[in-house]
Design a protein that fits this description.
single chain; alpha/beta; 5-stranded parallel sheet; 8 helices; 24% strand
């Protein structure tokens, strides 16, 4: 799961990054509103932590523009403002949740888990899609009583496909979600890992499979395609 942090106070952004890293989340941080909007519009993130007071564009305007462009990524707004009117404004513009600074790390993580549960069938440390289960506690792919271990890259890629089951994900989006914008990921690496995952899905006897949309990308189907 990849999370975008849009926060102009670098110390706060770095602190959140460390909290997320300890919980096994992958994250990117940007420090101004215009760059934050650009990153959100890529659709490469599973959740956004968005500060309200930002240089360039404020958080309210960012979430408003993102929703207008059809981006439905969950957004948790972070702000020092505690007034009810500000919370209402953020929610009205399309934010999913609101957390007032200073906040407890445990509360932040709980809010993140709550948001993710609304976009996937997640129970504790597992994600379910069609007839397969992905267990983040031990990086295993499971189908019935059969299981197989995944590498970290395989896990992140399958997690991305399962959360967005049935939805065609462009190759660039998958690369950015798994390797990040600044890391070494390319089409050849993507195809290699897709091949690995298909073999492991076959090993556990899954009906679910990774389908190719020629010239576009991949999606997780239920096995009837």
């Amino acid at each position: 799961m990849r999370i975008l942090i849009v926060e102009d106070e670098k110390e706060i952004a770095d602190g959140i990054t460390e909290i997320l890293k300890m919980e096994g989340y992958t994250s990117d941080a940007v420090y101004d509103g215009e760059e934050g909007l650009d990153y959100i519009l890529t659709g490469a993130y599973d959740l956004v932590l968005l500060d309200v007071m930002l240089p360039g564009l404020d958080g309210f305007e960012i979430v408003k523009r993102a929703r207008a462009e059809g981006i439905d990524t969950p957004v948790i707004m972070l702000t020092a403002k505690s007034q009810v009117s500000d919370k209402i404004q953020g929610l009205d513009f399309g934010a999913d949740d609101y957390l007032t600074k200073p906040f407890d790390a445990g509360e932040l993580l709980a809010r993140i888990r709550a948001r993710v549960r609304k976009t996937a069938d997640i129970k504790g440390s597992t994600i379910s899609a069609f007839d397969i289960v992905l267990d983040s506690s031990d990086y295993q792919l499971k189908k019935g009583d059969k299981a197989i271990k995944l590498s970290k890259t395989e896990f992140q890629m399958l997690e991305c496909l399962m959360i967005n089951k049935g939805q065609i994900l462009p190759k660039d989006m998958i690369i950015n979600k798994v390797w990040g914008f600044d890391e070494a990921g390319d089409y050849n690496s993507l195809e290699v890992y897709i091949s690995f995952l298909r073999k492991k899905l076959k090993f556990v006897g899954a009906k679910a499979g990774i389908m190719t949309q020629k010239g576009v990308g991949y999606y997780l189907g239920g096995g009837d395609e």
